[in-house]
Amino acid sequence: MGIITALGVGKKENISGILEGQNAIKKIASFDVSGYRGKTGGEISGFNFSKKLKQLKPSRLDRATKLLLTSIDEAVAEAGLLNRLPSNTPVILGTTLGGMLSGEAYHRNIVSGKKAKPSLLLDYLAHYQAIHIAEEYGLDSAAFTISNACASGTNAIGLAYNEIRAGNAEIALAGGYDTMCEFTFAGFNSLQAVTQTLCRPFDKNRDGLVLGEGVGIIVLEEMSCAVSRNANIIAEIIGYGESSDAFHITRPEPSGDGAGLAISRALTCAGVGASDIDYINAHGTGTPYNDAMEAKAIQKIFGNASQNIPVSSIKSMIGHLLGGAGAVEAVITVMAMNKGVLPPNINYQTPDPDCPLNIVDKSEQPASIKRAVSNSFGFGGANAAIIFQGAA
């Protein structure tokens, strides 16, 4: 697995930061936020791209592609496939913004009267990062880009899982990414969806989300193939579910039925029951509507068990990564399983009667996590859930 967030570059910095409950949210530095309602976010700082490229030119790469290449190298190295990745490996990535930073740069040049490079428009295309990845690693299989709002990263992992189950691939690269850009920041501010204080998922006084940026990458491999080459198996995906309720373009369907359907389908796919789940990584954006909806979905699907299963959202620490959220949270969920420690839901102070869940409100809580659910719910009713099981 590979990961980059505002907590740092790589698995070591991220898992230590998450389990310790570090808050990586700071004032936005990449553009002027003086005119915006919210002024903070989970920006990646100190990132230096150092990969030696075989096919691509560094000068032609946008920030998103550089982050992706760095995380993919980390994931492939852990899988023991560095410089040995089969050419028929599909690349499946989730994003909401793609190369939006390149689009912004083109727009700024145009409105200021400067000459704008046409190549910026190519990098702006949502699928271009996946194409770059395939080119650099010499992959000739499918290069998919999924743009399904905030469920994109989980959808990408789910599609890779289904491709392997169907026998269409033995190994797949899957994940999600998004970078911080002013266009999106302005949009969420205009919706008044961002907080002016702290992101506090499931807290009674929650009042909005915080945007972040990052990348999460997972190498998926068919079990017998991984065993035959003595691969380092760190977890198993045993279930995936998705649904669409198309209730409203921004507001979630309040009953939680659509989100619950995705979770239910994941449980059915995995062949496990509600009592078999030891941890739920919640979508938990920190907005009043989303968290109440997700709490209802969890209660409906898990019943009485919902009072005991630990639930937390790491968006309180790194922000909402949009298309990258589900993938980054999948990586964190697996690392937490292997560490035997629950990721905390920081800034949680006042329980909400509308969210009667077992919220993890303290850092470094030990737990035996054999199976975990990771939820992702996006604008327009895009819902996805994935279930991980610890390696035997």
How is this fold's topology laid out?
Elements: E1 2-5, E2 8-9, H1 11-20, E3 26-27, E4 40-41, H2 63-78, E5 91-94, H3 100-111, H4 119-124, H5 128-137, E6 143-146, H6 152-165, E7 171-178, H7 182-190, E8 214-221, H8 223-228, E9 235-244, H9 257-270, E10 279-281, H10 288-302, E11 310-312, H11 315-318, H12 325-339, E12 341-342, E13 358-359, E14 365-366, E15 371-378, E16 382-390
Parallel strand pairs: 5-6, 5-7, 10-11, 10-15, 11-13
Antiparallel strand pairs: 1-2, 1-8, 3-4, 7-8, 9-16, 12-14, 15-16
Question: What does this protein structure show overall?
Answer:
The chain has 392 residues and is α/β, with parallel strands linked by helices. It has one domain: Peroxisomal Thiolase, Chain A, domain 1 (3-Layer(aba) Sandwich), CATH 3.40.47.10. Helices cover 33% and strands 19% of the residues. The chain is built from twelve helices and 16 strands. The strands form four sheets. It has a six-stranded mixed sheet, with helices on both faces. Strands 9-16-15-10-11-13 form a six-stranded mixed sheet. Strands 3-4 form a two-stranded antiparallel sheet. It starts with a strand and ends with a strand. The model has no long low-confidence stretch (mean pLDDT 96).
Characteristic key phrases:
globular; six-stranded mixed β-sheet; single chain
Give a nutshell description of this structure.
The chain has 392 residues and is an alpha/beta fold. It has helices spanning 11-20, 63-78, 100-111, 119-124, 128-137, 152-165, 182-190, 223-228, 257-270, 288-302, 315-318, 325-339; strands at residues 2-5, 8-9, 26-27, 40-41, 91-94, 143-146, 171-178, 214-221, 235-244, 279-281, 310-312, 341-342, 358-359, 365-366, 371-378, 382-390. It has one domain (2-390): Thiolase/Chalcone synthase (Peroxisomal Thiolase, Chain A, domain 1, 3-Layer(aba) Sandwich).
